[in-house]
UniProtKB/TrEMBL annotation, chains A, B:
Signal peptide: none annotated. One of its GO terms (molecular function) is transcription cis-regulatory region binding. InterPro entries: HTH_LacI, LacI/GalR-like_sensor, Lambda_DNA-bd_dom_sf, Peripla_BP_I. This is LacI family transcriptional regulator. It holds the Pfam family LacI. It comes from the Bacteria. Residues 3-59 form the HTH lacI-type domain. Keywords: DNA-binding, Repressor, Transcription, Transcription regulation.
DNA sequence: TTGAAAGCGCTAACAT
DNA sequence: ATGTTAGCGCTTTCAA
């Protein structure tokens, strides 16, 4: 049924070795023009397709890269991690094996086992939000790169977003627009995002010669509801601009501000974080924000897995969070 | 380096055939308790892992299923298609090969070629929104199932959402809440969603003995902006409830309604479509909507590809869009 | 310039 | 009950 190399060889009147050589365009292989042509013709005539599996078996090394995700296909924007990883893998002739585990340890082990059985070159282990993780035991003895997460002792190569730079960038946008009294509505849940963005906020203020004022730092649940509820306090603080921990908080804040008759950005400037498209691009006014570099995280993960990127040893590789200006600042 | 079956056989003092039998728990294979035990011990002692690729090669049939998506990893909720497909594939011992093509024909052909070279059992071809497509030529001679899309002549097995039932369901929610004058803000872009939901809306009204009134059917760009802009006309129509083509339109409508001092659902009830979580669950009030069954589309696609589901021949398989009641009705 | 043949790790008759 | 062996489709020395 499927036509193999042997079929091509027979049709072209040559040996399989010759076919193999022309198919792979082997450098050190002298093939007569005539033979080469006959092989090529036979290939198209028979519709021959190399069997990648047999090739792998024979060569000993596969072209697979595994991506195990805790909920990446479930959550809105983090699917970009898959996308970035897949593009980059592709670019280097690799194929992505994807497994979604929903954070279920059993599923996770199964997924990893399955990938190992498929001889993956290595595994990308990724989470849908940036956090510290316990690396699953089966990964200990496998070429692994953590994406959007990291081991507590940094014993694994990891690629994560630069939260602090992101927080700084956000704050700088507000500063650049002339604001001096800038509030920060942070999340209540401890996380690299929470501390990193706060650090960035502070460092930007400091760099601008503005004394940090803890009365301007608020905490709220990281959804629309949190932002909405924070509105009153933010207004009371006298802030003229507010940096929200994420776009959803910003969206809630919009509601709260609007309800009190405040206009954005005229009365209060707002900047978000995450660049969650469905929201940010379509709020009124469109929300200025800072993007989480999901695509880049996936791509960089693949690169370091393939050894194309040499991260400072043992250190997390930080990926910049770019500013996405729209109309709320 | 990697330990093979032969290593295990040697360690256990048996032949590879025996090892193969115990590893695969072959039904018709009588293996002595003693030998079986020795093999199992050797397996853990050596940390043996079967090579799935060699197995495939030998068996002749692979356990791969390909999923080529036009933008599925890019777009928020449709990542659920991947998720559903992967879960279902997994459930049957299959592995998903994912490729995102961004609608680029060249990338698409490459992706398909690569999958074929990896001996996939078949290919799921999916789009991020429900529509008619031109099936890529290389798929013509391949076991293919279309997911969230369909061929113009229905010459391919396809699994799509039941837009009409969805539209009916949405309208019924409004009807059940006692509304009689129900507006429909449809999208301007021609699509199965546009015509299907409209048909569902009409059929629900008719079933309730309400005469359809074209003055109650509006058209708007399918984003927040469209909903916002439609608010005035909707209000002027005297409708007490409105079914929005999607959640984003509903979100915009919320703004428009609120700006005019109307309260939801007291003054006007609103229902959306898509169940786009970031939005629907967190609007104020939370938006009642109808869900697009992405996960199920992916899962059903895999099932029909594996021949576990027998679709009425040549027909599209319709997946129901369930109602997701929240507080806007 | 080309071919023969020995694997790659595993399965599946077929023997024993 | 267990072992032998011939492939699966391809790569790769090594000869010719």
């Amino acid at each position: 049924m499927t036509t193999t190399m042997r079929d091509v060889a027979k049709a072209a009147g040559v040996s399989v070795a010759t076919v193999s050589h022309v198919v792979n365009d082997k450098p050190g292989a002298r093939i007569g023009d005539d033979a080469r042509r006959r092989v090529q013709e036979a290939i198209v005539a028979l519709g021959y397709r190399p069997n990648a599996l047999a090739k792998t078996l024979s060569e000993g090394s596969s072209r697979f890269i595994g991506l195990v995700a805790d909920a990446i296909a479930t959550t809105p924007f983090a699917g970009q991690i898959i996308h970035g990883a897949q593009d980059e893998a592709w670019r280097h002739g690799f194929v992505l094996l994807v497994a979604n585990t929903e954070g279920n340890a059993a599923a996770e082990n199964d997924a990893i086992a399955m990938m190992l059985e498929h001889q993956v070159r290595g595994i990308l282990y990724s989470t849908w939000y940036h956090r510290e993780i316990e690396v699953p035991p089966p990964l200990q003895h496998t070429e692994t790169v953590l994406v959007n997460c990291f081991a507590g002792d940094d014993s694994f190569a990891a690629v994560v977003p630069d939260e602090e730079q992101g927080g700084r960038t956000a704050t700088e946008q507000l500063l650049a627009a002339g604001h001096r009294r800038i509030a920060f509505v942070n999340t209540t849940s401890p996380s690299p995002a929470r501390s990193g963005r706060l650090a960035g906020y502070r460092s930007a203020l400091e760099a601008a010669g503005i004394a940090g004022d803890d009365a301007l730092v608020f905490e709220a649940a990281p959804q629309q509801e949190g932002g909405y509820d924070a509105a009153a306090a933010v207004i009371a603080s006298g802030a003229t601009a507010v940096f929200c921990h994420n776009d959803r908080v910003a969206m809630g804040l919009y509601d709260g501000l609007r309800e009190r008759g405040l206009r954005i950005p005229d009365d209060v400037a707002v900047i978000g974080f995450d660049n969650q498209d469905v929201i940010a691009a379509h709020l009124r006014p469109p929300l200025s924000t800072v993007a989480l570099p999901h695509y880049e995280l996936g791509a960089a993960g693949v690169r370091t897995l393939l050894g194309l990127e040499s991260p400072a040893t043992g250190a997390r590789q930080l990926i910049a969070c770019p500013s996405v200006p729209r109309e709320s600042v």
